[in-house]
Design brief:
Bound molecules: manganese (II) ion
CATH class: Alpha Beta
Structural class: alpha/beta
Order of helices and strands: HEHHEHEHEHHEHEHHEHEH
Largest sheet: 8 strands, parallel
Helix content: 25-40%
Distance between the termini: 20 Å
Strand content: 15-25%
Radius of gyration: 19 Å
CATH architecture: 3-Layer(aba) Sandwich
CATH topology: Arginase, Chain A
Number of helices: 12
Length: 326
């Protein structure tokens, strides 16, 4: 091993970091225990489990201040779930939560804080991305979206085999789906397809492959990650989104990770990102200095083992905020 060569090869500079990476800022934590996007009621306990995993103090330990903590109210609906095609379940309730969440996320960005939304199922991204979108739209600025998921989340009521809205939020954000969701805040799409990447997919409904293909977003399957590595994949996401954006929203479904590492999710799927791949992806995005808003979703404490997935979720928030090993 030649240490000096290794050092120059990595391009790592010694001494203190400068510029954007060194700038510490404030974070707004938004707890959204939304459970109406699917039949897995345990996701409503996600925010509580992350609090138990010391979310606030772990963020503060990085030098950030926690500006505000906000609880989004979720209707206490007991829903009798049936798999049914050509519908979308609980749309009025999800639209109501989405609107409240959008307002909270937009206000967090307006306050010059990083908006971190803790779920809750992935249908909450309809609201968080609407808030992010509205913020940049008012400023005539652009933003990018990197979506981590085992699934495509790009179904519409016309293609969904289940009617579960947590399988639809990417489609909704791109402007396809139930109008009560796509037209939230009065316009669509919330994000442009040429600013959007999807990473880690491996469990797609048949129609979803075609939908992804037709969508114009940049998709990476787990095979792509295996073949090219998470570093190249992440760099290609950033290249695709472009350097003329003013922010990047990260929507991280914990089921993108391998269930051996992240068992506490609603819909697990083997062959996912490893512990280090997940962290490295978020560290690289944070290095861009562009991450202004983050969702961490689908934590399901009812399926977790000794709260390990909640602790992992908190560590991932730290990486997305720029925690580095050195
Ligand atoms: Mn998802």
């Amino acid at each position: 091993m030649s240490n000096s060569k290794e050092t120059s090869k990595t391009g790592r500079k010694s001494g203190k970091k400068s510029g954007k990476a060194a700038r510490k800022r404030a974070v707004t934590l938004i707890y959204c225990p939304l459970h109406l996007g699917g039949p897995h009621a345990g996701v409503s306990m996600g925010p509580a489990a992350m609090k138990v995993a010391r979310l606030v103090s772990k963020i503060e330990s990085l030098g950030f201040t926690v500006h505000k903590q906000i609880d989004i109210e979720v209707p206490d609906v007991l829903y009798w779930w049936e798999k049914s095609a050509r519908v979308a379940h609980c749309v009025p309730e999800i639209a109501e939560v989405s609107l409240a969440l959008a307002r909270a996320v937009e206000a967090a960005l307006e306050a010059d804080t990083i908006a971190v939304t803790l779920g809750g199922d992935h249908s909450l991204a309809i609201g968080s991305i609407a808030g992010v979108s509205n913020y940049y739209r008012k400023r005539k600025e652009e933003f990018g979206l990197v979506w981590y998921d085992a699934h495509g989340d790009i179904n519409t009521p016309a293609t969904s085999p289940s009617g579960n809205v947590h399988g639809m939020p990417l489609a909704v954000s791109l402007g396809d789906g139930d109008e009560r969701l796509t037209e939230l805040l009065g316009y669509k799409p919330k994000v442009k397809n040429n600013r959007c990447a999807l990473v880690g997919v491996r469990d797609l409904d048949r129609a979803e492959c075609e939908l992804i293909d037709a969508s114009g977003i940049l998709p990476f399957s787990m095979r792509d990650v295996d073949e090219h590595g998470i570093v190249k994949v992440t760099r290609e996401c950033l290249d695709f989104i472009g350097d003329d954006v003013d922010g990047i929203h990260v929507s991280f479904d914990l089921d993108v990770m391998d269930p051996d590492v992240a068992p506490g999710v609603s819909t697990d799927s083997r062959g996912g990102l490893t512990y280090r791949e997940s962290h490295l992806a978020l560290e690289l995005l944070a290095d861009s200095g562009l991450v202004r808003s983050i969702d961490i979703v689908e934590l399901n404490p009812a399926r977790d083992v000794r709260n390990q997935t909640a602790e992992l979720a908190v560590e991932l928030v730290q990486s997305a905020l720029g925690k580095n090993i050195l």
